Amino acid sequence: MTDISERVMGEKAICESEDRLKKMIEGASVPIFVIDKNHRVLYWNKAMSACTGLKEKDVIGTDHHWQGFYQQQRPCIADLIVDGAFDDISRMYPDIVSRSPLIEGAFEAIDFFPSMGEKGKWLHFTASPVLDAQQNIVAALETIVDITDLKLTEETLTSANIKLNTLTKITRHDIINQLTILLSYISFLEKTLPENKEIKKYAEKIKNAAQMIQSLIVFTREYQNLGMEAARWYPLDHLINKALETTNAKSLKIQLDPKPVLLFADPLIQRVFENLVDNSIRYGEKATEIRVSFEQSNGAGKIIFEDNGTGIPTAQKTRIFSRGAGKTPGFGLFISKEILEYHGISIKETGDPGNGARFEIEGPRARYKVG
């Protein structure tokens, strides 16, 4: 007689494990569904039914899970994962999908689903592979987060910001016009004033004050669009190359890190690199080359921007980020620092004086991805 008690106990343990897994998925407040290698739905929890309107009894054991999201049949990301069709994911979900920074082999995306609910829904969805002991894909799990309310709030704020921005533009335009008139009258007044040093001194102070106001108004123009457009992923090499074109840096050679690095930022991030290139041209003096590299450590990413110019004197390393610093008027590195800080990114100069400038731009993991 063969003793099958161990096999029975093993099968019982598997059944108990599967039962616990089912209860965990069913009890989760986050919408979850799981499909097997044949695209048949294994699990479809109550939260998923509430989100999609598709009941568990109508979808378990079928490949109809797409009906919860689309009006016409098309593969979900989970379907592409169980098929191992990873190259098709970015093709079928262009511009919205990216690899998950937390889960190996998983992909995530944000999209609007017009057929869901009365007015459509914005969803953040993550699909990840389920592996067996040999690391083969045997299923795929997809989780959903309804971010419709968040998107509506974001759109409301954007609309309010656009209106405020328009008013700011009009007001700034009117102020600059009046300042132009004021400075013209001051110039005319200086020519007609008697040769009195005291009077000339006060006239000069009036003109300087008017020019300072004009400078501050120009500064607000730099800020007006910060946060106005949604942040998105920008390839680092594109940012650098565009900065070289904008600043007409034809005399500088560029050496870029071969790793494909992307930054998640406001469109004004472009200004940061334009200012860095401009800084190398203006103050590098003998600079002929710019090197840009990227490294990761302690959960942060660091962009290193270097040139082979004269470098930054030790006493100036922190002052260069102050408003009005430099040999020419403007906000250069000051505005760059402000833009980066808005994104939670730091910048510092760590170069060796006399051997070129070196700027380290360090940001959190959520702000970059490699590959």
Describe this structure in words.
- This protein is an alpha+beta fold and 371 residues long.
- It folds into three domains: 5-146, 2-Layer Sandwich (Beta-Lactamase); 152-223; 232-370, 2-Layer Sandwich (Heat Shock Protein 90).
- It is built from nine helices and 14 strands.
- A six-stranded antiparallel β-sheet has the order 2-1-6-5-4-3.
- Helix 5 runs antiparallel to helix 6 (197-223), helix 7 packs across helix 8 (269-283) and helix 8 (269-283) runs antiparallel to helix 9 (332-342).
- The two termini are 59 Å apart.
Keywords, separated by commas or semicolons:
single chain; 371 residues; alpha+beta; Beta-Lactamase; Heat Shock Protein 90; 3 domains; six-stranded antiparallel sheet; five-stranded mixed sheet; 9 helices; 14 strands; 41% helix
The average pLDDT value, as a whole number, equals 84
CATH architecture of the largest domain: 2-Layer Sandwich
Binned strand content = 15-25%
User: What is the CA-atom radius of gyration, in angstroms?
Assistant: 29 Å
Strand order within the widest sheet?
2-1-6-5-4-3
Distance between the termini: 59 Å
Shape: elongated
Compressed to H and E, one letter per element, the order equals HEEHHHEEEEHHEHEEHEEHEEE
Number of strands: 14
Count of helical stretches: 9
